[in-house]
Amino acid sequence: MKITAERAFWLLDYYLCHGKVLVFGGRILGEDAACEAQISYVWPETHSVGMKLLSEDQRQTWDRIVPLNRAEFHLFQLGDDEFEEFGNAQFHSVLMLVFQDGTTMFLAEQAPTTIVEQ
After folding, report:
1. Hey, which residues does 73 pair with through a beta bridge?
2. pLDDT tens across 87-104, in order?
3. Alpha-carbon distance 80 to 35, whole Å?
4. Lower Cβ count inside 10 Å, N or C end of the chain?
């Protein structure tokens, strides 16, 4: 479902304030990329966000500033019909950023794991 930039920035700020480690994925310049990420800054007034991309072992990080002023935002949540295309029960929501040049980025929030006592 398409959402407003205001709602997208609220979500990004929520991820920042709660220290969420997200699953990042995207198609950038025709290449697929995937890793874990954290939001490090949110600037709604300049329509940009700072992201820290994490290596698999989380020993290396890369900081990136992503301008979002021309992005379209979509939110898919568990239970939505559109969520089925992601087909992964490990996530409960996916924020998709779509840019005019064809770049697409995904920030997925992992579902909390529960321990079932026997």
Report:
1. 3, 97
2. 656 778 889 999 998 889
3. 25
4. C
